[in-house]
């Protein structure tokens, strides 16, 4: 009567969304101040003032029909040109507005890219831990997702990669800074990764695309932490970007796909991106927020709060005796569950009103994600509860 | 190397988009005032003042994190409740916010609905003339689109429908007021149509969904023209709505899907809609515009301009000797090409800088669509050119 797969996807929400909804319910029961929701990557820091200022200015100054009308399917030309100019200036990669396709946020950037690339029997590779919706998006394109392990610093396991690459692998998806681990791939990592891809692509006689999901690109906290621009390392690369996290507007759904103009048949890949966007029902990215994105591209919300949170939480949790990955970026901390079953650990944390997401869904058994994009005060109040949780485990 | 189908979809733009891009190019060459672009349904009438007022108020009054943050995947609860309340009040159909799923506009409403419903070997039926992207959206779900003829008043051919219905038909898609013909289905038409569907569904022992694509619902111009609410006629019905045309904000991408709560297993169908939205990469509809939609639901831009345009154009073109369908609604007029080959007719019209869309793509050979959502002055200036075109054909 209807599509069973879609029914299952819709009736069994993602774990993250499940906890997000639970948090809302629980807050109504015992008061939001008593619920410590570390489940969702919904930025707490307000959008930079320029976002709302730009909205107000555009609404005042731009004729309604121009402001709210259709843009070209790939996005307003001046918006794309401006974002490309910034990209060239910031990262040194050569790129024009014609290589950029505006999207309704990161999820759309990914479903469109997968759909554009996927041929029969295709496969994409991702390293655990990874954002679980990747599996949904790859499945939507009809491709297979292969999950490979990372090392203890959450850097890719290159031996596993060498082994897994085969002529059906259409692309490797990376996400650095990483959700859920907070790890950032160094320039050395990217160089090693792309060396392997280049060699294997030559061997197989077909491009292997490197797809870089970069919503956390700007969210790094130490001076020495740099997020390498993959276009400078590898020609067959596609950047999927979203302004959700950098500008704190995840609900507005605005981002882009940038196809490296040095990619094999780059113009045709870009056309396939346009076709996939059309096929999936995206017409154009929201017009007002396209202009807001262009105006605010490269800027960020006040990241100092996340840095403070990161430092406080990492110190607090390690002081409690928990094992954590040091989070170089994004706003997630990856914590080793104090028992084998991370889901059971999360259930026990719930008793203290601590809402965490088990690592199972991220392909990382025994780990737990703590999203620290919350008010610092929430972390301060939560740490004694984490302490009690640690004591329960005799840490 | 990439998906060939997507490449073709992306490199061969829809005819409408093709002419839209040509118009931009031609305007740059000879000045916009000399190009008469009747190709695209991009409303010329500004959004009602309340749209921008609401945006300004929300931006001033709502904390950034709340305003621009994620909403639930199906849309903000208060937004959905408010839209449902209006629906009940306006149309008398029983509906709650939990039957509504907010989308990124009409195209998304449709791709999500098709994906939610489609099982293996499924088929959807549409009556010509129809919006050509339907074929793309149905193909994306992996279903087959069957196109049936209409009568000379652009009402469904019921004999053809009776014949075409078979156990693989998952749904019938209607679009009234119609793009491209401007025809509106009367209550009698809907009653006859749903009688057949009910009877056949009983015969096959499975629901046949009636999917109603209603972006033009509010755009009717005569007192006696009413758009019947399909939920009052048929239980297994799904309404796909968009605010693009009623509120003149097609670039902002905001609409909804309403699943009739009286539909068979309505909650499961709704869950499948949620799953399809997730699978296609829609996370949530743009947050700010969800609230704008709730605030402005049921209101419209100033439709008197379209009525004036409709009257002027219909009279002008019939006076020239052209055969036209009298357009009861939407902002399109369907004109019989003065030669067999509508594409050749459109090419000849281009000589006079009249940009029309051939009916071939709409499944209506020999017809042409004239979108009159333009400044009235454009029609006044264009009519003498249409006159010359008619004279060329000896009309």
Structural description of this entry:
The structure is a homodimer of 395-residue chains. Chain A is 43% helix and 14% strand. The first copy, chain A, is built from 14 helices and 13 strands. Chain A has helices at 4-11, 15-30, 49-61, 64-68, 77-91, 106-117, 133-140, 158-164, 187-204, 266-280, 287-296, 304-320, 342-351, 376-392; strands spanning 36-37, 100-103, 123-127, 144-148, 169-174, 209-213, 237-242, 255-259, 324-325, 332-336, 354-355, 357-358, 367-371. In chain A, β3, α7 (133-140) and β4 (144-148) form a beta-alpha-beta unit. The longest helix of chain A has 18 residues, at 187-204. The first copy, chain A, is globular and about 60 Å long. Chains A and B meet through α1, α2, α3, α4 and α6 of A and α1, α2, α3, α4 and α6 of B.
């Amino acid at each position: 009567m209807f599509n069973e797969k879609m029914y299952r996807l819709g009736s069994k929400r993602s774990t993250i969304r499940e906890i997000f909804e639970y948090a809302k319910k629980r807050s109504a029961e015992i008061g939001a101040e008593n619920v410590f929701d570390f489940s969702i990557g919904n930025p707490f820091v307000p959008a930079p003032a320029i976002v709302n200022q730009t909205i107000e200015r555009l609404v005042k100054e731009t004729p309604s029909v121009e402001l709210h009308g259709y843009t070209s399917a790939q996005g307003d030309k001046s918006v794309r040109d401006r974002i490309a100019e910034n990209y060239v200036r910031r990262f040194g990669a050569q790129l024009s507005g014609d290589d950029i396709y505006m999207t309704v946020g990161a999820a759309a950037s990914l479903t469109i890219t997968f759909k554009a690339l996927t041929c029969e029997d295709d496969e994409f590779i991702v390293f655990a831990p990874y954002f679980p919706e990747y599996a949904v998006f790859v499945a939507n394109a009809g491709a297979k997702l292969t999950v490979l392990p990372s090392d203890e610093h959450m850097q890719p396991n290159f031996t596993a990669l060498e082994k897994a690459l085969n002529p059906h692998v259409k692309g490797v998806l990376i996400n650095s800074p990483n959700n859920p681990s907070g790890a950032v791939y160094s320039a050395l990592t990217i160089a090693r990764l792309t060396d392997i891809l280049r060699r294997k692509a030559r061997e197989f006689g077909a491009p292997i695309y490197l797809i870089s999901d970069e919503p956390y690109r700007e969210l790094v906290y130490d001076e020495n932490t740099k997020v390498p621009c993959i276009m400078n390392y590898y020609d067959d690369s596609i950047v999927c970007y979203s302004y959700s996290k950098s500008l704190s507007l995840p609900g507005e759904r605005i981002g882009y796909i940038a196809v490296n103009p040095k990619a094999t048949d780059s113009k045709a890949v870009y056309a396939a991106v346009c076709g996939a966007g059309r096929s999936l029902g995206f017409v154009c990215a929201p017009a007002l927020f396209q202009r807001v994105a262009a105006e605010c591209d490269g800027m960020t919300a006040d990241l100092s709060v996340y840095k403070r949170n990161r430092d406080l939480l990492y110190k607090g949790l390690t002081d409690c005796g928990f094992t954590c990955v040091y989070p170089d970026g994004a706003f997630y901390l990856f914590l080793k569950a104090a028992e084998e079953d991370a889901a059971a650990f999360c259930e026990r944390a719930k008793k203290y009103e601590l809402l965490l997401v088990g690592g199972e869904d991220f392909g990382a058994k025994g780990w737990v994600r703590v999203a620290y994009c919350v008010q610092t005060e929430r972390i301060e109040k939560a740490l004694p509860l984490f302490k009690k949780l640690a004591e329960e485990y005799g840490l």
